Amino acid sequence: MPGPRGVLMKKPKKNKPGEKTVLGPVATVFSSVETGGWRIVRPSVDGSLCIRCGQCETFCPTNVIEVHPKEAGEDVKPVEIDLRYCKGCGICADVCPKECIKMVDE
Amino acid sequence: MKNQTKKMLDGNGAATEALQLARVGVISAYPITPQSPIAEKLSELVASGELKARYIRVESEHTAMSAAIGAQLTGVRAATATSSVGLALMHEVLGVAAGCRVPIVMPIVNRALVSPWSLWCDHQDAMAERDSGWLQFYAESVQEVLDFILIAYKIAEHDDVLLPGMVCMDGFFLSHSTQPVLVPDQAAVDDFLPPYRCKNLYLDPKDPMFINNLISPDEFSEMRYQQKVAFDNAEKVIPAVQEEFYKRFGREYRVLDAHRCDDADVVLVTIGSMAGTAKHTANRMREEGKRVGVVRIVSFRPFPYRELGAVLKGKKAVGVLDRSAGLGAQGAPVWLETVSAVPGDKSNIYSYVAGLGGRDITEKTVQDIFGQLLRVGEDPSLAPGTVTPWIDTRENAMDIRRIRTNDTN
Q1: Which residues in B lie closer than 8 A to residue A3 (C-beta atoms)?
Q2: Concatenated DSSP letters for B323-381?
Q3: What is the CATH code for B256-386?
Q4: How does pLDDT run across B64-114, given as a tens digit for each residue?
Q5: Do A25 and B99 count as a contact with CB atoms less than 8 A apart?
Q6: Count of domains for chain A
Q7: Which ipTM was obtained for this model?
Q8: Chain B closest CA to A28's CA: distance in Å?
Q9: Edge-to-edge, what's the strand order for the sheet holding B78-79?
Q10: Is the pTM of this model over 0.80?
Q11: Taking CA atoms, what residue in B is nearest to A12?
């Protein structure tokens, strides 16, 4: 059928079981980008100053920080950050009441 | 007809009846003068159980539309209504309903936008949304408020359309004017409007979709074009649904309503409740031998340019009476679209602005307009001294605030 500016517009393909044409913006294939690749600085935690208050975990907008309780043991770091997704925004460093998180060059 | 009952309703009451008949299942309406009785009455119907629906008490119109879109995507007719700055607050989200093809039908009670701050009738609110991708219909009477909402559902939900729609009624002049209305029975409406099913995008955990994701320049035009096709299709679907409504309920509607235009020398283009006054005035002037006609825009989006061009062809003069100012353009909104619709020489199409901010459009206003049109129709060279576009604005406009001040400089 003729479309705008004389371009011939193709008819949509026929729908079949399990496959159809829909209108408007929609996605059905879900994939996640490893957003850690966007960083230019990364958080560096001094565990010896950490009081495990949990502010960094609460305020991380990407939800990649986990604060472990003392009960988890000596070998477990108090603050664990998933660097695959941490975008280096620096909010954790900003909210830490003990200033034990510093942002360092990636 | 046997499938209808006469009730005395005002425009807000008629809108509420229509939404109830359409069996809306979720309501997210935020009150604003002059729409508030719609939000209030719907809450009463839900509280009493007469209307089986969930009522969400939203904190703003922005949320009202957002909630309605989310609800309708789960497979229910979602209802909201608004006016003026409420519609303006919804503006950002209107585009989501349009672009994601969610066929919400929303009553709009036309009221001026700020500033100046007004509570009263003006088309500025809906005209500001004429590019929103929503269908727009303008009612002349309270009967039409009810009928147009039912008709709009059927058009909006049609497979080939899938667009949201506004049904506009003049603030106070219709919303608060009690008129006799024939209300179709529930069974008759159920037959006309089948239960709602999501036909395109939907929110269903069993068949997940991520709706309204980011679209790159590679695909944006194509998706916008899909909406254009919907408007093209609506041009055919609207008359078909109007025809079906006529067969079922006995009231005939078209995309525009031409009154005594065939043999008219001059025609006035109108929109909304002003048309009633215009037609009445035209009838009186006809008795005096003046060959005047009135055409009323019923469907503003899509704009019935072919039909309007045909009605206005060959007229000695045409006036377009806008109830909004359309500042910064050569003329007001309906005038601009009328001029575009009429082929050939357009120099005899005159823009008029009246009835802003709740000012009544009186028989005198219409008579004065016709008087000017008849004069310039005979001799267009008289136009500069004859035509006064802001016809009901007073001479002291620039001097209307004279104040005492502490500034003694």
Answers
A1: 225
A2: SS--TTSSS-HHHHHHHHHS-S--TTEEEEE--GGG----HHHHHHHHHHHHHHHH-GG
A3: 3.40.50.920
A4: 999 999 999 999 999 999 999 999 999 999 999 999 999 999 999 999 999
A5: yes
A6: 1
A7: 0.87
A8: 5
A9: B54-55, B26-27, B78-79
A10: yes
A11: B226
